[in-house]
Amino acid sequence: MEMTRKDFLRTVAMAGFATTFSAIEPFAVLAQQGTNAAGKKVDMVALLGGEPAPMFEKGIEAIGGIERFVKKGDKVTIKPNIGWDKTPELAGNTNPDLIVALINACKDAGAGEIIVFDHTCDNWRKCYESSGIEAAAKKAGALVVPGSEERYYREIQLPKGKAIQSALVHQAILDCDCWFNVPVLKNHGGARMTIAMKNLMGIVWDRGAFHQKGLDQAIADIATIDKPACLNIVDAYRIMKTNGPRGRDASDVALAKGLFMSTDPVAVDYAAVKFFDQFQKMSVDDVKYLDMGRIAGVGVTDISSLNVKRVKM
Fold first, then answer.
1. Under a CB-based contact definition with an 8 Å cutoff, are residues 82 and 95 in contact?
2. Is the pLDDT of residue 304 over 90?
3. For residue 193, what is the DSSP state?
4. Preceding amide of 245 cis, omega within 30
5. What is the per-residue pLDDT for 20?
6. Helices (H), 241-287
7. What's the pTM?
8. What is the pLDDT of residues 87-122, one digit of tens each?
9. Contact 34, 309 (CB under 8 A)
10. CB 59 within 8 A of CB 259
11. What is the pLDDT of residues 188-221, one digit of tens each?
């Protein structure tokens, strides 16, 4: 089912976003309201009703422009979800059109180099090909590199970690000037949802340690990395409602036509779960790593202090 404008605005209100539409009132259970202060740096943008590239273009403009994050000559890394040997219409991976739009924006800002990678779950060559991301990113001028060998990773310390205190992180993250975290919004059998924080499992070598030591806490721990993404961009164009993270067939997918951007990974995940709930019942209380991330100081679930913009395409 495609989400209606009314449903979206209700979701935005529930997530704490201020809205000027009088027909939609915030649910009493969530009294918090995001501000929309003129002249104040925007913390989050929520968009609905467009195609991936136009939504990105509107969103990046609303959040302050790509130049807020990318400077001339910067080495930029883009980390989509490319974890599965799935075609774009099955929503297992980030939409390639969104990645191309981000690459083009980084080029316009004068980026010296743009790298795209993921540590995939299925065979990386098949994932890169089936997702459409490799071909699209290369055509747009990015360098696409694998994450399939341990030699690409270096150890970092996670002093705030509880379940994991160190991890091998891909050199594309460690050596760049800034990086973008670009997950797809979908159901996950273990963590309930995979969004921005969960997407960070694709920057580490040993994902097995996350499952062995407590998945939710490990997700919160890796999010304490001292080089966080400059921007989290949640692809909610097609969402995987059920049987995630890999999915089975098209019956798992809903065409939602949404996009969320934020510098705060906890807040953007919180909002994205509320959006997801309109398609498949899901409570933010069920996504345990959200509050764990808040406790670790990664971001906020109470977004009353954030400056949020809503864009209807």
1. no
2. no
3. E
4. yes
5. 29
6. 265-276
7. 0.90
8. 999 999 999 999 999 999 999 999 999 999 999 999
9. no
10. yes
11. 999 999 999 999 999 999 988 999 999 999 999 9
Which secondary structure element, helix H or strand E, spans residue 255, and what is its range? Answer: strand 253-262
Distances (CA, A) of 134 to 20, 23, 176: 40, 43, 19
For residue 157, give both structure tokens. 């310390």
At the topology level, CATH places domain 5-312 in Rossmann fold (3.40.50)
Q: How far apart are CA 172 and CA 143, in angstroms?
A: 11
> Are the beta carbons of 69 and 230 closer than 8 angstroms?
yes
CB neighbours of 77 closer than 8 A, spacing ≥ 6? Answer: 114, 115, 116, 117, 172, 173, 176, 178, 179, 180
**Both tokens assigned to 285:** 């209380």
Structure tokens at 307: 């400056």
Given a cut of 80, is residue 30 above it in pLDDT?
A: no
The 10 Å CB-count burial string (b at 16+, else e) for 97-136 is bbbbbbbbbbbebebebbbbbbbbbbebeebbebbbbbeb
